[in-house]
Amino acid sequence: MEDYKQETKVEERTADVNTTNTTNTTPTSTNTTRTTNSNNPDANRVVERKTQNTVTYDGSESYYKLRKTVYLILGILEVLLAFRLVFKLLGANPTGFVSFIYTITGVFLAPFIGIFGNATTTGIETKAVLEPANVIGMIVYAIVAAGIVKIIKIYGAPKTK
Fold first, then answer.
1. 128 neighbors 88 (Cβ within 8 angstroms)
2. Dihedral sign, CA of 148, 149, 151, 156?
3. Residue 59 C-beta-side C-alpha neighbours within 13 Å
4. Residue range 93-137, pLDDT digits in tens
5. Is 144 in a helix, a strand, or coil?
6. Which residue, among 150, 115, 156, has the nearest Cα to 136 in the 3D structure?
């Protein structure tokens, strides 16, 4: 999904040894293989291969940060809407934190209320409500955020001559 280039730089070094050992590390991978073979003197050697991966973004840093900011805002909104969905489904009492979530998310769900009717079930102590507007809002805001990010990618792409 992200525009980036990945470069890999590999260095190899060989030396003679008489032991067997292997190590691996990351993000700069160092693979050291030591082999011993008494029948072939050329096989008693160390091959050390260093691999360094470098990831660079194709575009300016400000566009990249702007895209990440859009995803952050979407993530926060989706979490708030998910809390509202769960609270409504479980029939939470609208006091304190729950009331705060309902108030904040009500503003974002206002365009979608009334598209479908709410499904309610009444239990012994609680009333569970499924708000389709909540689910529709989560989907629509995700699509809108993806569209905004695509537009930012278009304007942030390097200019070719």
1. yes
2. positive
3. 15
4. 889 999 999 999 999 999 999 998 888 888 888 888 999 999 999
5. helix
6. 115
Q: Which pair of tokens denotes residue 143?
A: 């699509």
Q: Are 36 and 22 a contacting pair, CB within 8 Å?
A: no
Instruction: Report the amino acid identity of residue 64.
Output: Y
Task: Tell me the one-letter amino acid at 119.
Answer: A
Contact 119, 98 (CB under 8 A): no
Spatial distance between the Cα atoms of 79 and 58, rounded to a whole number of angstroms? 30
H helix or E strand, kind and range, residue 52: strand 45-57
Q: State which H helix or E strand residue 33 sits in.
A: strand 28-34
Q: Which of 86, 94, 74 is nearest to 139 (CA)?
A: 74
The tokens for 106 are 């009500």
Name the pTM for this structure.
0.60
Query: 20-75: per-residue pLDDT in tens?
Result: 444 444 455 555 555 555 566 555 565 666 666 665 555 578 888 999 999 999 99
Q: Which of 99, 105, 129 is nearest to 117 (CA)?
A: 129
What is the residue extent of each domain of the chain? 4-57, 61-156
